[in-house]
Amino acid sequence: MSHTVGVYYRERVTLAVCPGSFDPITLGHLDVVRRATLLFDEVVVGVARNASKSALLDVGARVALAEAACADLPTVRVVEVPGLLVDLCRELGAVAVVKGLRGGADYDAEQPMALMNRHLSGVESVFLTAAPRYAHIASSMVKDVARHGGQVDDLVPPGVADAVRRALGVTSPGAPSATTHHSATPLSAPGGDTSPGSAAHPNQGVS
Ligand code: PNS
Predict the structure, then answer these.
(1) Catalytic residue among 21, 99, 139, 172, which?
(2) Fewest CB atoms within 10 Å of the CB: 44, 56, 74, 156?
(3) Does 116 contact ligand 1 (Cβ within 6 A)?
(4) Are 46 and 25 in contact (CB under 8 A)?
(5) What whole-number distance in Å separates Cα of residue 100 and Cα of residue 106?
(6) Rounded to two decimals, what is the model's pTM?
(7) What whole-number distance in Å separates Cα of residue 186 and Cα of residue 42?
(8) Cβ of 21 below 6 Å from ligand 1
(9) Cα–Cα distance measured from residue 78 to residue 64, given in angstroms and rounded to the nearest whole number
(10) CB count, 10 Å around CB of 196?
């Protein structure tokens, strides 16, 4: 009909699942999720258990941090993956699994999972590359740097670094530390906030 010429009606809503341990979610993860929203109508971030890793944050905390990080993305929701990823994909009618690749090592780890998921259910995997400025960011390194008192606030979405430090029982970088403080100055000297929630980094956020 002439009045519909030029209007494209699509019957399917495409949904992709972006799974991971997200222990914790990083700016690299978030960049991949954002890119996935440009390709799929809906994106479900699936917070899963990886049998080969022991998580620092419990799954509820990982879901909450991912939800906060994705709050400005209206087509994204975050769920826990209670069992097999492919079962969630079937339940949601996902057309694809989306994972981020930083390099060849990631591909080597992801390819067997992609093949297994396709073997189990037929679901395809789509690999996206985050912006190069995030290529060095890994959840495991974020935890390791934070554990030793390093600055991680500019590697993760707002609020995540504090949650990681709380879980690790470490204080913010720059805060007076009981183990390295040798002068007679009290730890609670004016201006010295030792609480784990006191760190604020100028580079927080995603751009
Ligand atoms: O961020 P990760 O740890 O690389 O993600 C791996 C994850 C969690 C996506 C994978 O371990 C997974 O899918 N776990 C859910 C259980 C499952 O389906 N296992 C079979 C995977 S082939």
Answers:
(1) 139
(2) 74
(3) yes
(4) no
(5) 8
(6) 0.83
(7) 53
(8) yes
(9) 8
(10) 19
